[in-house]
Amino acid sequence: MKIKKSILVIFPAIAISLLLTVHSCKPNNDTVPHNPYDDIHRDDTTSYGIPVDSLTITYVHKKVLAPSCALPGCHDGHFEPDYRTPQSSFSTLVYAPIIKNNTAGTFNYRVIPFDTNYSVLYERVINCCFVTANDRMPQDNIGVALPDSSLNLIASWIMHGARDMFGKVAKLPNKEPTIQYFTAFDTISLTFPYAFPTKLYDTTRLDAIYYNPFVVPQDKGVFYMAVKVTDDSTAEGSLQLNKLKISTDQDNFSSALQYTGTYVNLSGFSVWLMTIPTNNLPANDTLYMRYYVNDGDHTSNTEFPRTEMLFPYKTFWSFIRQ
Q1: Residues in CB range of 151: below 8 A, 6 or more apart
Q2: By mean pLDDT, which of 184-198, 222-236, 265-279, 296-310 is the weakest?
Q3: Which of 42, 48, 54, 84 is buried most deeply by CB count within 10 Å?
Q4: What percent of the chain has pLDDT above 70?
Q5: Which residues contact 231 (CB under 8 A, 6 or more apart)?
C-alpha cells in the first residue's frame, strides 16, 4: 500500500513538469509556420488527369525516362540525351541543340517548353519513321511505341512548360558569341593562304607544326585576317566590337595594336575582315592575336584565345613576320 501511494504522489509531479516543458517550447507568437504543401491543389489536373504539380522532369524521369530509356547501351550516359538522372535529363533535353534532324530540318532543340510540334523528343517517340523506317524511340523494342500513358505524360510535361526539378520553366539561353575560326591571306581574293582552319591547307606554320605560328614574309606590306563568328540570338552582321588585337605578350593585350573588322562576304563565306599592315610590326618575333566581340546582350566581351587556355591555342592564333 505504501508503494501505491508513492506512485500516486509522484505521477502528478511528472505530469506538471511535462506540461511546463511543452509550454516552454511553444513559440512566443503562437504562430504556425506556413506549410508549402497547402498550396498544392490536387483537383488542378491536365487533360490526361495528371496533377499539374507532378509535371516536373523528376516525375517524367521516374515514370518514363528511367525505366524505358536509361537502359544499358541506350541513354545511359554514353551519349546525349543523358537520362541517368532528372538533372542530366533536363540539361540535355530542354533547349538542348539536336544532333540528328529530319530531312526537312524542322527541329532546332530536343524540347521547347509549351511546344510539342517543334520538340524533337516528342516527335521521336510518336513518329515511326523520323528519318528511316522503324527509328522511333525507344529502340530496344523496334516498331513498338511507348504506352499511351507515357506518351501523354511527355506531351503534357512539354505543354505545361517542360519544368525542371523545382517546377520552374526554362528560358531560352542566350549564349555568348562563338569565335569559330580565322584565316589569313596574302590577297583579298583569298589566294596564298598563310593560315587555314584545317591542317590540310595550313602549310606555312613554323617547322610545319600545325599549332605553331604561321609565317608572313617580310616583303609583304599587308595581309588579311578573316574571322568567322556566330551567335545564337544576334545576326552575325549585327555583332558589336569585332576587334583583333596583336601583342608580343601572349596574355597581355592592354596596349596591343587594334584592328576593327568589316563584315563582308568572300566567295560565299560571311566573315569579319581586317587589313593588317606589317610595316609597324616587329620582325622575327612571335605576335599573338586575340579577337574580341559582343552580341549586345552580355556586359563582358567574348574573347579568344583566353588567358586560361593552353599554350598551343595561343600559338595557333599567332604569326611571325620574317
Answers
A1: 125, 126, 145
A2: 184-198
A3: 54
A4: 81
A5: 175, 176, 177, 178, 239, 295
CA distance 207 to 193: 17
88-117: average pLDDT: 92
* 4-8, 183-187, 230-234, 245-249: least confident range: 4-8
pLDDT digits (tens, 9 = 90+) for 106-147: 998 999 999 999 999 999 999 999 988 888 999 877 778 999
Q: What is the spatial distance between Cα 191 and Cα 126, in angstroms, rounded to a whole number?
A: 51
DSSP for 4-15 reads: HHHHHHHHHHHH
Tell me the residue type at 100.
Answer: K
Q: Residue 265, SS3?
A: strand
Res. 213: pLDDT tops 60: yes
- Phi and psi angles of residue 31, each rounded to the nearest 5 degrees, phi first: -100, 150
In angstroms, the CA 304 to CA 178 distance is 9
Phi then psi for 79, rounded to 5 degrees?
A: -160, 165
Sheet holding 262-266, edge to edge: 193-195, 178-185, 222-230, 269-277, 262-266
Torsion angles phi and psi, residue 306, rounded to 5: -95, 160
Task: Count CB-CB contacts under 10 A for residue 80.
Answer: 16
Residue 201, Cα to own-chain centre: how many angstroms?
31
Q: How far apart are CA 189 and CA 301, in angstroms?
A: 30
- What confidence score (pLDDT) does residue 29 get? 53
The β-bridge relationship of strands 302-304 and 286-294 is antiparallel
CATH architecture of 178-321: Sandwich (2.60)
* CA nearest to 100, candidates 83, 120, 126, 122: 120
Q: How far apart are CA 201 and CA 180, in angstroms?
A: 17
